[in-house]
Every structure is written in structure tokens, then in C-alpha cells.
Amino acid sequence: MNRNRIFGSAVFVVFIAAAFLIFGSQAAFAKEKVIKMTLAHADVADATQNVHAAAVAFKNYVEKESQGKIQVAVSPGAALGNTASLQEMTMSGEIEAATSQTEGTIAIVYPNIQAMTVPYLFQSVDQALDVFRGAYGQGLFEDMRRQTGLRVIGLWDNGGFRNFTNNKRPVHSPADMAGLSIRTMDIPAHMELVRSLGAKPTPISWAEVYTSLQTGVVDGQENSIPIVILGSLQEVQKYMILDHHVYTQQHLMVNDAWFQTLSPAHQQIILRGGEKAGLAGERAARVYREIGKSIIGKKMEIYTPTQDELAQFKAAAQAPVLKFIREKGVSDPKWVDGILTAADEALVGLGYAKK
């Protein structure tokens, strides 16, 4: 049987089990008119893919808990447009909800989101989630709602930590990055990160990444383990370092003006649906990443850096990128200072560090 099919089936089973354990009982409502809601995303329409699976789980939860009074139409695979277009459509009210594939798209309308791109900030997924779901993240998203009219109702796993891959040589330290051409998204902070490590950032659209790596247009790229597998990049790359430079998530956003027209009971269902679907997707994603490493390991050499080596990456990249984000990224530097403080507090709260 095809490895990817086995991989996908395993993820799907875990996702469904997680969703079953999380989702609660049905709410009771009086007779109300049916509310139509479109949720669009640009990821593939695959039930084993984290974002689409979470979108379907959201639909099922909301429709069940509202007793069918809220009907959710999921539009996957960029059928209504790319991520930036979907964001614009949500802001204008043309559709009710969409996901952001990266914080870079949100930065077009809300620059402060770039505070989330500080490299080598988090030691674990739990630390990152503690920051994003805690007081810091909620404050940032409330500020975003006031400025843009976009309300974040869920944080959905986007594959976890991003890592570097390349075709030239094993990378164990920043010195090994020197001279490599690395594909990045068109996100200035990500490009500055690559530049600070001595490599050459080259923005290339996702649709062209596989061919660009295959033909040598670029030497490498940076992405999370599930995204590497999604694009079959292990077929055209030789080396991966699990440096975990940036942790990214997808943001499930709704038009806030539309949200405010809902009854309090329906608002709570929408909010709980976004949260619960994200939690179910996160559980599946953790398994996804572990299975993914074994698949990638059959094609690529995977290196886990030592703490000393990670410290070298942090020393080389964090200060320059922080300076860049403060001066050319965010509109209010307090969000940069805030995420640094929140990250330290999360380590203490999780028991990884002392006060």
C-alpha cells in the first residue's frame, strides 16, 4: 500500500477520535431562521489534511450544536481565491469566514501580527500555544479585531515548527548555511531570518517550489514537516535540520460585523467550534509530525541539533530579525516586547524554567 495513503489514514483516524472526545452535547434552540455561513480556505480538500479536517469538524460541530440553525458551507482548495483574496472577502463581508495560511497574509492589513515571527523564540509547541492562546495572544487578536474587523475565533495547526532543508550539504550550524539559496514565502521577516544566517532568501510561490528545488533554481527551502510531505519535497531534497526556527499557525477569522448580528447563543457555538476544531486538529497534527519524520527519513538525512548548536542559530538570527520587525514590521513595538515577556512567562508556567 502507498506510504502516503497509510500515513493519511492514520492521521484521519486520530483526528476523528480526537474530535469525538472533544465535541460535546447538542444545544437547544427555539425556532429561528437558518443562518448561512461560508468558511473558505486555500488548502487541499483532503480529509487527512489538518486544515480541511478542522474545517469539516467545525462545520459538523456548529451545525449539530445549533440544531441546523447555522449551516456552514466549506469551500476548500482556493476555490474562491487565494489566501489574500479570501481575507479581503471576509473583511468586506462577501464571505463570513476564512483561514490565513500564514501570519504574512494578515500582516498586509495588520502589521503587528509580525511579532509572532521572532525566530528561535519557543522551545516547544506547548510554550508557543501557551503564548498564543493566553493573555498575550488574546490581547493581540482583540487589537486586530478593532483595527481590521476580523475576529480570530480559532488557532489551527499549520504543521508546527518550520525547519530548513537543502540539497547541498548537511547543516549543523549557521556557518553551514552560508551561500545557500533558500526559498521563502514573501514574508520580509522570514527573508531577514535567512539573510541573517548567511544564506540568500528567494521568494517563490508554493506552486513552483517543487520544480524550483528539482531544477536547482534554489538549493533549499523552509517549512514544517507536514508541509514538506504535502508537497512531496522529500523527493527533491537531501538534508533537513530540525532547527525549529519559527512556529506558525493558521488563524480562523470571521467578519466581526456579521458575528455581532448573531444571538449570544449562536456566538458561543461559533467560538467553541473554532476552538474545539483547532484542538482536535492539533492532536492529529502531533501524530502527523511523528509519522512524517519517519517518511521523510527514508528519503532525507534528518539532523537534530544540540542545544549549543541551537544557541548559535539564535545568537546569529534573533537580534537582527527583532531589529527588523521593530523598525520595519510592526506598527506598535509593544507587541514585540510583549511576546518576549510572554514566552519567558510561559516557560516558568510550564515548569521549564524558574522565576
From TrEMBL:
Belongs to the bacterial solute-binding protein 7 family. Coiled coil: none annotated. InterPro entries: DctP_fam, TRAP_DctP, TRAP_DctP_sf. It comes from Desulfosarcina alkanivorans. One of its GO terms (biological process) is transmembrane transport. One of its GO terms (cellular component) is outer membrane-bounded periplasmic space. Keywords: Signal, Transport. This is C4-dicarboxylate ABC transporter. The keyword S-adenosyl-L-methionine does not apply.
